[in-house]
């Protein structure tokens, strides 16, 4: 499993092209997958602040890496600024990404069946965040 990075320091893996190059170097591609961390992507310069921005970002992911490699996601907002290359997680809707991204993810069938892991900072509200995420799925069905 390869997780995208925020791009702090000399970290590799903050561009989708980096992930694609790593995958390309693996002989048995059935044994490789990608986990996208929303805070890392945002900090690396992939906009997630609106449904339209998410569409554009994940269209780039599909074109460069391919959804067939997406095996999981870490869902978290970002304390850090867009493109800052600083990894600072925040609670959903309380950071610079906002709620729209997470609604969009929960309502897009391409993310069905893969682990969506809440990786936010306040354990006191994890149950509320999970309930809110589940409600976004129901909102799309209704």
From TrEMBL:
<comment type="similarity">
    <text>Belongs to the AP endonuclease 2 family.</text>
</comment>
<keyword id="KW-0255">Endonuclease</keyword>
<dbReference type="GO" id="GO:0008270">
    <property type="term" value="F:zinc ion binding"/>
</dbReference>
<dbReference type="GO" id="GO:0003906">
    <property type="term" value="F:DNA-(apurinic or apyrimidinic site) endonuclease activity"/>
</dbReference>
<dbReference type="InterPro" id="IPR001719">
    <property type="entry name" value="AP_endonuc_2"/>
</dbReference>
<dbReference type="GO" id="GO:0006284">
    <property type="term" value="P:base-excision repair"/>
</dbReference>
<dbReference type="GO" id="GO:0008081">
    <property type="term" value="F:phosphoric diester hydrolase activity"/>
</dbReference>
<dbReference type="InterPro" id="IPR036237">
    <property type="entry name" value="Xyl_isomerase-like_sf"/>
</dbReference>
<keyword id="KW-0862">Zinc</keyword>
<dbReference type="GO" id="GO:0003677">
    <property type="term" value="F:DNA binding"/>
</dbReference>
<keyword id="KW-0540">Nuclease</keyword>
<dbReference type="Pfam" id="PF01261">
    <property type="entry name" value="AP_endonuc_2"/>
</dbReference>
<dbReference type="InterPro" id="IPR013022">
    <property type="entry name" value="Xyl_isomerase-like_TIM-brl"/>
</dbReference>
<keyword id="KW-0227">DNA damage</keyword>
<protein>
    <recommendedName>
        <fullName>Xylose isomerase-like TIM barrel domain-containing protein</fullName>
    </recommendedName>
</protein>
<dbReference type="InterPro" id="IPR018246">
    <property type="entry name" value="AP_endonuc_F2_Zn_BS"/>
</dbReference>
<keyword id="KW-0378">Hydrolase</keyword>
<keyword id="KW-0479">Metal-binding</keyword>
<feature type="domain" description="Xylose isomerase-like TIM barrel">
    <location>
        <begin position="1"/>
        <end position="135"/>
    </location>
</feature>
<keyword id="KW-0234">DNA repair</keyword>
